[in-house]
Known about the structure:
The complex is a heterodimer. Helices cover 34% and strands 39% of the residues of chain A. By secondary structure, chain A is α/β, with parallel strands linked by helices. Chain A has a 6-stranded mixed β-sheet. The longest helix of chain A is centred in the C-terminal third of the chain and has 23 residues, at 200-222. Chain B has one domain (29-206): Lipoprotein like domain (Double Stranded RNA Binding Domain). In chain B, 40% of the residues lie in helices and 31% in strands. In chain B, the strands form 2 sheets. Chain B has a 5-stranded mixed β-sheet with strand order 5-2-6-7-8. Chain B is elongated and about 80 Å long. The A-B interface holds A 49, 55, 57-58, 83-88, 90-93, 107-110, 113 and B 36-42, 82, 126, 155, 157-158, 177-178, 180-182, 184-185.
Amino acid sequence: MKIVTIGTALLLTFLLSGCGATTTIDEYRPTTKIMELNSEESVVILGRRDAGHYDTDREFISCVTNKMEGADIQVLPEQQFVDSIYPWFEPRTAPKGLKRLKRLMKDQAIKNQVKRQKIRYLVWLDGSTQTHDKGGSISCAIGPGGGGCFGFAQWEKSSAYEAIVWDLTDLTEKGRLRVDSTGTSYMVGVVAPIPLLTPVKNDACNSLGTQLKQFFSVENNQE
Amino acid sequence: MPTTKTTFFSALSGLLALLFITGCSSSAQVQVQAQFPTVVSEPKPVNAAIVFTDEFKTYIAKPTKNITIDLGAAQTSLLSNAFSGLFNEIEFVSSADQVSLANALVIIPSVQEVQVSTPSETYLNVYEVWIKYNLDIQSASGEAIDSWFMPAYGKTPDSFMLSKSNAIQDAAIIALRDAGAKLLLDFYRIPSVYNWLVQSQKQEAQQ
């Protein structure tokens, strides 16, 4: 009996420790100067969509947006901004660098739209979450006497996202953040399938959102 | 009692089979309905007449035998909006002989081809739509200036929880938006259009 209890405890510890994601954040800021943002100004978080093999998913962007809004930072919805300045932030036309942004902002009509909406900072999010290293197998069957699943499957997920902050007032880059998160999820089939999922993307979003919030909250704390 | 049970199971099996078959249905009739945002652009002092033929306005693409996409209304709305961002004076007509603007560029858009790719064909988790437009550009006197090929591309971010029709519609809307972006970005970069513009400005200055 004691052996079974110890075995179960060990198995649970193993499974639960396996469900934690490992997340690393790299931050780069050219200066330690605070990023000013008054109560009327807002931030736009945009996803990069020009890569052929992936799109920065909207779910991740809204997750980061929610994190920022929680800190009383006004965030303009991505689609609202893209529509208001159509077609200059479509996948084909969106500026990839500051040089192109500066050229774009020379256009008075575009500049007026940015001014009208009081957008101070633009945050580009670029990245994706991918599943790899799938292993094991699980099979389920159903018959007249009942049904059940048996087996064990595992897979690894990794999220890699980069955030670049541009200041639309002086058209400079204010900082970069990179988050890498990995974790393994399991599915154990013991009559019923028991999923033990690692929230890799959610962890990446929480870490990135919290760190990004600090970029802007410095000024708020000092006010 | 056993008869009732058998009938119940038969009905359930039938329903399940119907559900699976409908779920796997590979045909899609798509009506693209979208409101496109107004373009942010300073039009150039150029006159233009855009010829939207009836065929263009009611265009229905048939990229595969199982898929039809009704693009006519959406592409007319999108291109009307995009052209308005390019030219100061603009008129929309149904045929080239209705053009009344003086010294105008006459542009006749047409669709060359529409292609669709689905996850079942590409094993990618996205739906993609390509629309290949052709713009016949003429002077008001009917002299051909250029025939410009304008491809546009759109894809869905993923195919998760999207029905085939909705996914193709989403991809088509993105492709139409891309067409508007391409037009605004590149139209005045077409060498023959640029040359026509320089020449017509010279002629105006001489008069």
